[in-house]
């Protein structure tokens, strides 16, 4: 035995107090270790008394050198029993059947020492109490009364994630309630909290365990609120939750999922269905994700996670899973295996898309008239963060019109962290997403290298899918055009237009060079014909300033008289034209 001090105040029930070091009778439920606060503060725990059977409280100090003190407070706020003593390590108290909320106030006997006390609350089965056996407790049944059904949420709060819907007029049993009027309902496949103002509660709902957590207050009248308490156990362990969690992950930015597990009491495992949303065909033939587990709390080294069949990964380790539009989800298991030490672990699972490694140099071939595009991905800090892309025209020809192109290149980006991307020519990667540059490509100088990178100093996590666009463009004109030709031989004029970038209109002054003041060479009738090649020729319009409505391959006849000047001609790609690169030739032929 050890030296201790006990006080027993008047109770309307029978109470048996035993302060011993030996083992107590077998308990129907495991205890939970709690840590009394150091100093003079107490920590308050609450539990619902059993109205049909005696309830036994047991307290066990984890270390002989860390004694504790206990006060037991009934549902009216009276202190009905106290335990204290410099050598007290184990104490037990049995309460007669009662209704209402009881509280236990724990404090460390040594103000300077940290301590841990295992609290066990047991329904004591007895056949000697009363002349008849106690009737079975009635079930609390919750029925949805809202016409649209009632959301089942992860916690008793309107901003908590919705786990499912309890359909209108359907019912489920409840196993807990909250101070705010919520009920925790459950079925064989799901569970969740429903708000009391949109349901009907019938049965023994007032006797449901109240959702409680400890609070460091010295007032026995103040109840605590927070984590779900299962049955009659006073705990700070992980609450039992849904049969599985739905972890929705954006394909571009990733997401995090946080929960807690505990052992041997509480919820020791979570099933998490990771589902990737926003995948699209083409670029997402295979999109790899890095899954990383971060943990905190006692027993973190015991936690295992991974595939639901064989979770072998530990806290701090990373796994990679490839997702596609056909395979966009993976069931994961997070668990504290049987045999783990006493644990309470809060974990965060991070799922982030990563760019796969690719070739050191990537090829981007483009057409001399229609251009082309190239798509890939970069990510930071994990995955491929830099690409080297060689761009070149694949179909240059020997003739002058097709052996040279000015090409406009710009970068279009999507995903997360696009503001971190830099690209451009080697030594000059100062462009950001949306920026553009011009390249001069020719048959003799046809290859240019572009870099697309996420620099080492990128801020935060990034996953960027980008597209390099390349279009041949007509350079802006530096002066007005004059097209002069012989009165008898005629002539040709060549130029280029492009849209939506580059030069999209030309103004040409057409002249007959050698008309005379006297007949017969003072007049000529000239047929003008526009012949076009390239991409988008159907969008070209041309003609005189008063009527620019002719199409490619159409012609007009224009009279030229000595002394009256030339004829202006317009060739345009109208505003709003689709992507175009048009080489045109204006033919001038004298009409007999």
What name is given to the CATH topology of the largest domain? Jelly Rolls
- Biggest pleated-sheet summary: 5 strands, antiparallel
The largest sheet has its strands arranged as 1-7-6-9-4
Radius of gyration: 41 Å
Question: Would you tell me the overall average pLDDT?
Answer: 80
Query: Any low-confidence stretches, pLDDT <50, length ≥5?
Result: 1-35, 124-137, 212-236
- In CATH, the architecture of the largest domain is Sandwich
Helix content: under 10%
Described by the principal axes of the CA atoms, the overall outline is elongated
Task: For the record, give the distance between the C-alpha atoms at the N and C termini, rounded to a whole number.
Answer: 134 Å
Number of strands: 42
Number of helices: 0
Number of domains as seen in the coordinates: 5
Highest-level CATH class of the largest domain: Mainly Beta
- β-strand amount: over 45%
Structural class, judged by helices and strands?
A: mainly beta
Search tags:
592 residues; mainly beta; Jelly Rolls; SH3 type barrels; 5 domains; five-stranded antiparallel β-sheet; elongated; disordered N terminus
Describe the secondary-structure layout.
Elements: E1 5-8, E2 15-18, E3 32-34, E4 43-48, E5 55-61, E6 68-73, E7 79-84, E8 90-95, E9 101-108, E10 117-123, E11 141-144, E12 150-153, E13 162-166, E14 171-177, E15 182-186, E16 191-195, E17 199-202, E18 245-250, E19 255-263, E20 269-277, E21 287-296, E22 304-307, E23 318-323, E24 329-335, E25 343-353, E26 362-366, E27 372-380, E28 386-393, E29 404-416, E30 422-424, E31 436-442, E32 448-453, E33 462-473, E34 481-485, E35 491-499, E36 505-512, E37 523-535, E38 541-544, E39 547-550, E40 555-561, E41 567-572, E42 580-591
Parallel strand pairs: 18-20, 26-28, 34-36
Antiparallel strand pairs: 1-7, 2-8, 3-10, 4-9, 5-8, 5-10, 6-7, 6-9, 11-14, 11-17, 12-13, 14-15, 15-16, 19-25, 20-24, 21-23, 21-25, 22-24, 27-33, 28-32, 29-31, 29-33, 30-32, 35-42, 36-41, 37-40, 37-42, 38-39, 38-41
């Amino acid at each position: 035995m050890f030296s201790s001090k006990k006080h027993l105040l008047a109770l309307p029930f029978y109470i048996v107090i035993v302060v011993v070091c030996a083992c107590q009778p077998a308990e129907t439920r495991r205890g939970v270790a709690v840590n009394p606060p150091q100093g003079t503060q107490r920590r308050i725990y609450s539990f619902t008394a059993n109205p049909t059977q005696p309830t036994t409280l047991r307290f066990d100090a984890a270390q002989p050198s860390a004694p504790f003190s206990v006060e037991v407070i009934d549902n009216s706020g009276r202190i009905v029993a106290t335990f204290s003593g410099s050598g007290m390590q184990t104490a037990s108290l049995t309460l007669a059947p009662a209704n209402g909320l009881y509280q236990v106030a724990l404090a460390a006997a040594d103000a300077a020492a940290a301590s841990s006390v295992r609290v066990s609350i047991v329904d004591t089965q007895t056949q000697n109490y009363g002349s008849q056996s106690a009737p079975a407790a009635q079930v609390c049944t919750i029925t949805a009364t809202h016409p649209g059904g009632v959301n089942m949420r992860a916690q008793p709060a309107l901003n908590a994630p919705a786990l499912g819907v309890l359909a209108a007029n359907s019912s489920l049993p409840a196993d807990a309630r909250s101070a705010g009027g919520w009920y925790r309902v459950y079925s064989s496949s799901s569970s969740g909290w429903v708000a009391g103002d949109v349901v009907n509660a019938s049965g023994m709902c007032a006797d449901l365990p109240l959702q409680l957590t400890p609070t460091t207050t010295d007032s026995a009248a103040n109840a605590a609120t927070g984590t779900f308490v299962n049955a009659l156990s006073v705990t700070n362990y992980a609450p039992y939750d849904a049969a599985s969690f739905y972890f929705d992950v954006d394909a571009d930015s990733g997401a995090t999922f946080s929960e807690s597990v505990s052992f041997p009491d509480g919820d020791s495992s979570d099933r998490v269905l990771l589902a990737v949303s926003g995948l699209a065909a083409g670029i997402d033939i295979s999109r790899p994700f890095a899954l990383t587990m971060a943990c905190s709390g006692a027993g973190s080294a015991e936690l295992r996670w991974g595939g639901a069949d064989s979770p072998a990964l530990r806290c701090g380790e990373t796994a990679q899973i490839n997702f596609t539009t056909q395979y966009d989800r993976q069931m994961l298991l997070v668990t504290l295996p049987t045999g783990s030490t006493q644990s309470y672990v809060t974990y965060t699972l991070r799922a982030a898309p990563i760019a796969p490694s690719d070739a050191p140099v990537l090829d981007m071939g483009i057409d001399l008239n229609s251009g082309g595009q190239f798509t890939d991905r970069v990510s930071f800090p994990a995955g491929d963060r830099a690409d080297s892309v060689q761009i070149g025209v694949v179909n240059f020809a020997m003739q002058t019109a097709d052996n040279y192109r000015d090409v406009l290149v710009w970068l279009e980006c999507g995903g997360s962290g696009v503001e971190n991307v830099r690209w451009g020519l080697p030594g000059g990667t100062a462009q950001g997403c949306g920026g553009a540059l011009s390249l001069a490509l020719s048959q003799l100088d046809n290859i240019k290298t572009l870099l697309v990178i996420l620099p080492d100093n990128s801020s935060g996590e990034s996953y960027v899918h980008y597209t390099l666009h390349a279009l041949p463009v007509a350079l802006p004109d530096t002066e007005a055009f004059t097209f002069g030709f012989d009165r008898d031989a005629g002539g040709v004029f060549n130029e280029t237009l492009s849209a939506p970038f580059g030069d999209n209109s030309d103004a040409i002054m057409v002249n007959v060079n050698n008309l005379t003041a006297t007949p017969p060479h003072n007049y000529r009738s000239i047929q003008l014909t526009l012949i076009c090649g390239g991409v988008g020729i159907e969008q070209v319009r041309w003609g005189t300033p008063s009527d620019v409505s002719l199409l490619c391959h159409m012609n007009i006849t224009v009279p030229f008289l000595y002394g009256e000047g030339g004829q202006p001609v317009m060739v345009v790609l109208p505003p709003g034209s689709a992507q175009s690169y048009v080489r045109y030739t204006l033919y001038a032929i004298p009409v007999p």
